[in-house]
Structure formats: C-alpha cells, structure tokens
Write a structure and sequence with these properties.
globular; alpha/beta; 9-stranded mixed β-sheet
C-alpha cells in the first residue's frame, strides 16, 4: 500500500504549507473545531509575497502562467483611528497599495472629467501582492475600460502594520483592527489618490473576493459617494447571527464530495471514528504519526483530524474547472481527482490509508466582530459538532483578552431581510457565487433589484470569476465574466450621463 499512499499524499499535500504535513502535537485534547471563518486565508501570510522595502518598486504580478502585469508599490500615511479624537487617533502608519496604470486613460479636461475609471481591490487578510496576482480579472478588463488598477492592503496585514512587530502584543494595539476602520482607510486613500492624480471626477468601482468581497459590498453601502459600484465575489455577508443555517457550510462541502462519488463521501465520513479508535493509546498515536508523516509524535488524534478537515475543506473551496496556482499548484477539479484516488483503493484497504492525505490578525477579527457560527450535522461527512456563543466568548477571552460582539456586523451592515432592505436603499452591487464553494451558502444568491444582481454558477468555486481568464475556461465562466463586464459598463455609462 506504500505507493498508493504516497500518491494520495502527494495530491492532498498540494494544499499544505510545506512538503511534509506539519501536524501539531497539542498539549490538551480539542473537540472537533468547525472552520474558523475564512480560515483558508490563514495560509496567505505564508504564501503571499511581501517586501520590507519602503517607497515604490516594480513587482511582477503573474498567475496561472500568464504574462506578468507590472504594478508599483506605494505607501500612504494613514491615520490610526478614524472615529475618535484621542491622542493616539492621529498616529500615522504607512498603508501599502499597488498601482497599475498601463491602460489608464488619463484625465485631459478640467477636473479630470475624461479620466478612465479606478478599479480598486479592497484588500483581505493577507499580503496585497498575493491578492493582486490572483485577481487577474481586473487586469484582463482594464484595457476595455481604460482603467487604473489599485490594490489596497488591509491594515494589520502584510506591510501595513501600525505598531510594527508589537502590533499583536495586546488588545490595546489590536483594537484598531476592525472592518469599519479598514473601510475608512480605503475611502481616505481613494479620495486622496484621485485628488493627487487630478482625477476627482473619475468613477470608482471596488472589487473583492471572500472577506475582501464582503468589504467591497459594505464599502458600496457605506461610501456611496466614493464608489459607484461593487463586485463582491464569494462574499458570505449573510453568514452571521441566525440568518444562514449554521450547518450549511459543512453540508455544502459534503455535497461536493458526494456529487463526485458516494463511496468517496462514505470513506471520509467513516474515517473519523477509526481515527479516534486508533489514537486511543500511545502505540496507536505513534503509528498514526508515522502514517501521516507528522513532524513529531502527536499527542491526540484530533490534531490529525483538524489537519484533514482543513485539507478537504480547502479542496472543496478551490474546486476550479481549470488548473490553478492558488496556495499551491492545483489540478482541474481537485475534488474529482481526490475522489478518484480514494475510489481506486481496494474495498478491503485500510480506511486510513485511503485518507492520509497562524496568524493573529484574522484570529483577532474572528474573536471580535467576525463571528460566523458553524456546526456540522449528522448528514455531513464531518463529525457532528455544535456551536455556543458563550463557549466561543470564553475561548476568545482566554486567547485575546476580549469578548466577541456577535451581533455587531448585522447591526453595522445589516443582513436580516436583506432583499427588502437593500431594495429600498442599495444599488450597483454584483454578488457572484459558485455553488461548489461552501461559502456561497452565506452569500446573496437571488437578485434583489435591477441593479443589485446575483450571478450564481452551479459549478463555480471560491471567487473563480476574479481569476485570470484562460483558454480552457468553460463557457459558463466566460458568460459570467461577460455579464459582469456588461453590468460594470452600464454603471459607468450611467455615471457619465448623470455627470453630464
């Protein structure tokens, strides 16, 4: 069984952070832990490309083998706190942003009326270069619109660290890491940039995927006067409170595997009990450590369970129809490829042989305002689990010294009865989702109005539409992007008509 085992490991480890699985040896048992909201992005800081140099520099942004698209890196003096006038509020940190003006139609008339639009990416929880290299759609459509491309790094990530190496030392410093502060950062930087470019009248469209997509949609709602529209891809803005069923995320992952192979689903579902049984004594834990090539002997089987759960979840999220370089090199339809290997084992093979296969910024956000309850049902391929606001609060207080505000996001940005609310006051937002992406269940999946549109693809994965176009893209991806371009063009045309 050695050769098949290594073959399976080689596929599953494409999503790991190193050639060997780094399974932690926990000091105490942990219950099965549902995926922390957007935990996939935990790898970004380790996979993203960053630089410690200040000022401007030329960086080549390339993805999926496409030609490089150069952009320059700049640093904007940003105030620490936009919402108070305390002594620390006016403290300045340098926020990184990237610019590509290759195709920009520069202003020629008074007030910059003839300038091309600004397409701005609202940065996620990681290095901004990484997002630029994986958002090829903006580069692809920039020539058509004569657009200036801007990618803004999120505060407390990448190089945009207000307190340097001491940023994560305490709640006193981390308390400035909130989504509202980040949105204000974007608004101030965009406004200043337009003024410096003599392009005050140029329209702005914001783009974002995953957490960045959430920020893009919220930016359009909060800063209507700054951005004329937003493309929010794979943005689970309804994954809060009691809006979305708590078990929807893991049920969606399970359905992805079941749709490929019932046997594959059954093997994964049956493995958890076997894993617990094997890991019930020291001898079993030693054998499991060797089988999964752990960096050291694990103390609890849950360590391996967490690692496997993450691998299966990531694979479902990035189940793209073409090969992709997202975190690592991925084959087309990686869920299908994984199930092919699992299904290829003899029926009497060891079930575990069929299976072998971070950072503080987001940890802080997930323990303060970004509280997304998740559970697993008995129908899932993962072990059943529950969620408790009280237990989550206690755990966050123990690790971060603060307690979550679980209902703040829906208070600040809304979410309940979103179809009726946004129909009355919202406009110009594209919510794009692929149903292979488990985060889609917390997204907007139906049109709200003529200008708040949901583009849903049955086989799409995590913000697939934002990736570079390739010659192998299926027709439904091509059509989705065509619709997005058409809608954005309509926003810009209407803006110029109104200005005239």
């Amino acid at each position: 069984m050695v050769a098949p085992l290594l073959e399976l490991l080689s596929l599953l480890l494409i999503l790991a952070v190193s050639p060997e699985p780094t399974i932690a040896a926990h000091s105490k048992p942990k219950p099965f832990r549902p995926l922390t909201p957007l935990r996939m992005q935990a790898l970004l800081r380790r996979h993203g490309r960053s630089s410690s140099s200040q000022g401007s520099k030329l960086v080549a942004a390339a993805a999926d083998g496409t030609a490089a698209n150069p952009f320059t890196a700049h640093y904007f003096p940003q105030e620490l706190d936009h919402f108070t006038f305390t002594p620390n509020a006016s403290m300045v940190f340098y926020q990184k942003y990237l610019v590509n003006d290759t195709f920009w139609r520069r202003p020629t008339g008074a007030g910059g009326a003839a300038a091309g639009p600004l397409f701005v990416y609202t940065g996620n929880e990681g290095d901004i270069e990484w997002f630029a290299t994986n958002t090829g759609f903006m580069f692809d459509i920039a020539p058509k619109f004569g657009a200036l491309l801007v990618f803004i790094e999120h505060r407390f990530y990448g190089e945009s660290i207000p307190f340097g190496n001491n940023s994560d030392n305490s709640a006193e410093t981390m308390g400035y890491l909130t989504s509202t502060q980040a949105l204000a950062d974007f608004a101030i930087l965009i406004t200043s940039l337009k003024r410096n470019l003599s392009a005050e009248a140029a329209p702005v469209v914001v783009f974002g995927g995953s957490y960045g997509g959430m920020l893009a949609s919220w930016f359009r709602l909060k800063y209507l006067h700054v951005a004329i529209g937003a493309l929010a891809s794979s943005a689970p803005i309804l994954q809060f409170d009691y809006i979305t069923p708590w078990n929807s995320f893991y049920d969606a992952i399970s359905q992805d595997y079941k749709s490929e192979s019932l046997n594959c689903f059954s093997v994964i579902k049956a493995t958890w009990d076997v894993l617990d049984e094997r890991g019930s004594d020291d001898k079993g834990l030693l054998e499991l450590s060797k089988l999964f090539r752990a960096c050291k002997t694990v103390k609890y089987a849950d360590s391996i369970g967490d690692w496997l759960e993450t691998a299966f979840t990531y694979t479902a999220m990035v189940d793209y129809p073409t090969p992709a370089n997202f975190l690592e090199n991925l084959p087309a339809y990686p869920v299908k490829e994984m199930c092919k290997i699992i299904d290829g084992f003899p029926a009497n093979a060891d079930i575990l042989e069929k299976r072998p296969l971070m950072f503080c910024g987001w940890g802080w956000q997930a323990c303060t305002e970004m509280i997304m309850p998740m559970t697993t049902s008995h129908e899932s391929m993962f072990p059943p689990s529950t969620f408790s606001y009280d237990e989550s609060s206690d755990a966050c207080f123990q690790s971060n010294g603060v307690r979550p505000r679980p209902h703040w996001i829906t208070t600040e940005y809304g979410g309940y009865r979103i179809d009726k609310v946004l129909k009355r006051f919202g406009s110009n937002i594209i919510f794009s989702n692929g149903m292979r992406d488990p985060w889609s269940r917390g997204g907007v999946l139906k049109n709200i109005s003529s200008s708040i549109v949901a583009l849903v693809t049955e086989k799409g994965a995590h913000h697939l539409d934002l990736r570079y176009a390739t010659k192998d893209d299926p027709d439904w991806v091509v059509e989705q992007r065509r619709q997005e371009v058409e809608i954005i063009q309509g926003w810009i045309d209407q803006y110029h008509q109104d200005m005239a």
